[in-house]
Amino acid sequence: MEGGTLTVGLATDTAIIDPSITGSSITAVITRNLVDSLVGQAEDNSFVPWLAERWEINSDNSVYTFHLKQGVTFSDGTPLDAAAVKYNFDRILDPKTTSSYAKSLLGPIDKIEAVDTGTVVIHYKKSFAPLLQGLSLPYLGIQSPTYLQKATSTTNTVVGSGPYILESFVKGSGSKLTRRADYNWGPGYAKHAGPAHFNGIDFKYLPESSVRLGALASGQVQAIDEVPPANYRSVQGDEKLQVVTRENPGVNNSYFLNTSKEPFQDTKVRQAFQSAVNGAAAVKAAYLGTLKPADNILGPSTLYYDSGVASKWGFDLAKANELLDEAGWTKKDADGFRTKDGRRLTVHYVYDSASVGASNVTLAQAVQYQVRQAGFEFQLDPVDAGGYTARANSNDYDLVSFFYVRAEPDILRTVFHSAYVPPNGSDYVRVTSLDEKLSKAIGASDAERKQLYGEIQSEIVGQAYAVPLFVAAYQLGASKKLHGISWATNAKPLFYDAWLEP
């Protein structure tokens, strides 16, 4: 039960391992083992002690007081105290750090006080209800200030207080983690206390699905993510293997349409594109029934998900053609694509080829064929991570795709508030119309939050700011000898309690 190395094959890569400066899901999977959080969130969504043994919140959610466990240290031997927590959050709030996602999770902070070595007080300018949920995520995990102050770059190193220590991270290859022998401050939801069971964890980047699957079947790795859709049932039927699926809460995998320039500046063109996409058929073609098509911008397991949005939109080719006619795209060129004023109706789908898996490319090719029936030329523009960032920051794209995992609907602020237009975050849609409601919702009562988020979901889909595609899910293929995997509320596997039978 104790010892050994767990080897995990990952389908996608991350360019950055510092969880404070990325929203990458892969970074979250790896660094959950390296950094601890102030609070934990159990699978039943309750909040439990972790680095903070207890906390108080004032009546209007504007002052949070955290009392830290004593004796916690970072892996470099320095103490994890109130000053360290304050340093981490101040760093995230500093514009020079470019912590767009982590910063959005912290919300509109007024000031942070380290009252004494064991007490941190966070003051807000106005009510901020979602803080505990954000604090439970690895993006707000606490890192060693001593390390952070010395590091010239944190893109490939992390020093935290977690059950494992990062031995190495190499972009395009993977990460090696080693057990911390003196770890003794796990989250309240953990099944055991003390050090982790494995001596180490190796995360290997294996982008080819056949290679990943072969490594699992042969025992070279004990777990993989993104079980290939074509092999899903055969893995499930293998007596030595298992597939565990966890649907993601948060923003569904969607196409986000750039409203700031033509052609998607025109609402009718956006609605036409949305109507020309047969999401259910495209998702079935790409994922062979292993993932659910999305019927809303939020996944069903997200707080305040509105099931009524599904009836307000959907595939309708006749409607798409009618809307494009109304928008003035009435002519067609020799290739059958619509034109207007001598310009072809071309939209560029820009994506990072390392973080968008093969099945997503298959899905995009299905959509490419679908929207062509309405006269859209849908161009796939694969780029590397640097190229993707450059295209986003210079507003050189028509649509992008991604998903964000969070059980709290405040995730919509991260994706649709104009404060987070690239390079400041993930508002690739570049809208301002939702700002007031998104800001109001973070401090409202439960009833008002439900109403506001319902209105926001309706506008996002109704105005075709996005085309929801599928409910992303973490699909863990694993040896049946692997036990003790638990799940975070962001649908990520947790390895602290995990062990292998001989």
From TrEMBL:
GO terms for cellular component: ATP-binding cassette (ABC) transporter complex; outer membrane-bounded periplasmic space. It is found in: Periplasm. CDD domains: PBP2_NikA_DppA_OppA_like_15 (cd08492). This is ABC transporter substrate-binding protein. GO terms for biological process: peptide transport. Residues 47-401 form the Solute-binding protein family domain. It comes from the Bacteria. Pfam families: SBP_bac_5. Gene3D superfamilies: Dipeptide-binding Protein, Domain 3, Periplasmic binding protein-like II. Keywords: Plasmid, Signal, Transport. Belongs to the bacterial solute-binding protein 5 family. Its main location: periplasm. One of its GO terms (molecular function) is peptide transmembrane transporter activity.
